[in-house]
Design goal:
Strand content: under 5%
Structural class: mainly alpha
Number of strands: 2
Oligomer: single chain
């Protein structure tokens, strides 16, 4: 953690302070970037709340057929690789996309084109983050004791007034916590702004990238990075306060009472199928579909692996897939190793300081971390594979750490003690007792870290070396060079792989009734 996370992070702060008196942070350009970053993040969070709250009510308060399937599918956008999501928006909402070509134009003779606009950025960010609000708030609603709402109904309150004056204040901490977390994700949005917004729009993340890769202005990048760290630190502090205040719920199901499925719920589900699942499935279909002839095709896949687009990628698609697997596997193994040891140390010593340290990378964006490695290159010459594996490990480690920490907290210590009495040593207990018992958490941490590494794009773009291509960067390079069908085909392979990973991730934890 000291080498891969703290050293680059400290170097960023030292570098920014070093040039603090020589650069102006609030230049007209930077001031506009900060304003737009807040503006789009606020609008995106509002839309994410508007989309997520009705779904939270349906999941937490009602029973309907395929409820668990709907809940599981609704989480897909949150774990979908950003490059795949952006290409999904392009294939669904684009001028010649599925929505316009096959529905709006033939039926109504109109087109809906949100791409390359503020609306597209807001829709993309909301698409990514509404599952967070829906699942967190839905869980809070499911734990509410119905006795309070029943008392309000007896006193003459309607369903709407009961929800507004009784239930909403009780779930407000969860709404506020999930909304702030969604705001942070929107605030640090990169691929959505870069691909869906276009060159006219720049957030702090995008502008830092532009300073480093296009303008080679390290002082400007350092100033914006320090400013972003200050904002993220404030947001993280507020989140920790809200998270503690949201602990009023026990997390246990209090009552099996459920409301009847409302009529507006059908319209909501249909809207979700069209505008949420539409981009997901269209992104997969677009990789194997010729929109001009309206026929399925393998032409784009053949171009990927025939070498026709190698000059645009900088290498071959096969090499990109192989290096992606190598990077993802290496970082996932490191995450598992570090998570097992780190979580065990925290659980054994009850160290809140170590727990805060191991969780803190969640508050640092990949672009910021990658900038730290750019500065680190001035002191140590690190090859790209070492850098990118370290970055992927730091990004995924907090999730793996929390997963293994929950496993260690439930670990039956009496079995470990009994093995010690019987003469078992450290390695015997580790290989024959600890790892088998922690197997579900280990598998979960590995697969989750593997999926994150496969889809990571922002830090990879900043540190990119064409000798070591990845799937996500290759898809972006094809997209930016207007080889969009080939980019969609490559991204479709990434999306399908991610879906299978999370299918196997959830499968061990599924109950017999299909719940999770």
């Amino acid at each position: 953690m000291a080498g891969a996370y703290l050293v680059p992070f400290i170097l960023i702060v030292v570098y920014a302070v070093k040039f603090g008196g020589k650069v102006s942070i609030f230049t007209p350009l930077n001031s506009h970037v900060v304003y737009f970053t807040f503006y789009q993040a606020i609008l995106s969070t509002i839309l994410a709340i508007a989309v997520g709250l009705p779904g939270a009510y349906l999941i937490g308060r009602t029973n309907f057929k395929f409820k668990y399937v709907f809940s599981a599918l609704s989480t897909i956008p949150f774990v979908m690789p950003s490059i795949s999501m952006a290409l999904g928006f392009y294939s669904f909402f684009g001028y010649n996309g599925i929505l316009n070509t096959y529905f709006l134009w033939p039926i109504f003779h109109l087109r809906f084109e949100p791409l390359y606009s503020l609306m597209g950025i807001v829709m993309g960010n909301a698409f990514y983050n509404f599952p967070l609000i829906m699942i967190v708030v839905g869980g809070a609603i499911s734990t509410l004791d119905p006795i309070y709402l029943e008392a309000a109904r007896i006193d003459g309150a309607s369903k709407f007034k009961g929800f507004l004056h009784v239930e909403l204040p009780m779930i407000f901490p969860s709404v506020a916590t999930s909304s702030l977390l969604a705001f942070v994700y929107c605030f640090t949005s990169f691929a959505v702004v870069l691909m869906i917004g276009g060159a006219r729009y720049a957030t702090l993340e995008v502008q830092i990238y532009m300073y480093l890769r296009t303008l080679f202005d390290f002082k400007g990048a350092a100033a914006l990075t320090l400013l972003q760290l200050i904002f993220i630190g404030i947001f993280t502090f507020l989140f920790s306060i809200l998270r503690r205040s949201s602990g009023i719920f026990s997390g246990e199901k209090i009552s099996e009472a459920r409301s009847r499925f409302p009529k507006w719920g059908y319209a909501y589900v249909i809207g979700m199928i069209i505008f949420v699942f539409g981009p997901i499935f269209s992104q997969i279909i677009a990789g194997f579909w010729n929109f001009q002839s309206s026929k399925p095709t393998l032409e784009w896949v053949n171009r990927l692996f025939s070498g026709m687009v190698n000059s645009y990628i900088g290498n071959s698609s096969t090499v990109a897939i192989l290096w992606t697997i190598v990077f993802a596997t290496s970082s996932a193994l490191l995450v598992v190793l570090l998570s097992i040891t780190g979580a065990h140390a925290v659980q054994k010593r009850h160290s809140s300081i170590l727990e805060a340290l191991f969780t803190s990378p969640l508050a640092v964006s990949p672009i910021t971390l990658a900038f730290g490695y750019v500065i680190l290159q001035n002191h140590f010459s690190l090859p790209f594979p070492v850098e990118i594996i370290a970055v992927y490990t730091v990004i995924s480690f907090p999730i793996g750490f929390q997963t293994l920490l929950s496993g260690w907290e439930r670990f039956p210590t009496e079995i470990d003690d009994a093995a010690s009495v019987d003469g078992a040593g450290f390695w015997t207990k580790t290989l024959k007792i600890r790892i088998p018992i922690l197997k579900p958490q280990i598998i979960s941490a590995f697969l989750f870290s593997f999926a994150i590494a496969m889809g990571e794009v922002s830090a990879t773009m900043l540190l990119y070396d064409p000798q070591y291509p990845t799937i996500s960067i290759s898809a972006y390079r094809l997209f930016s060079s207007r080889h969009i069908p080939e980019a969609q085909a490559l991204s479709a392979l990434l999306t399908v792989a991610t879906f299978f990973i999370f299918y196997f991730l959830e499968k061990p934890f599924s109950d017999k009734k299909g719940g999770f």
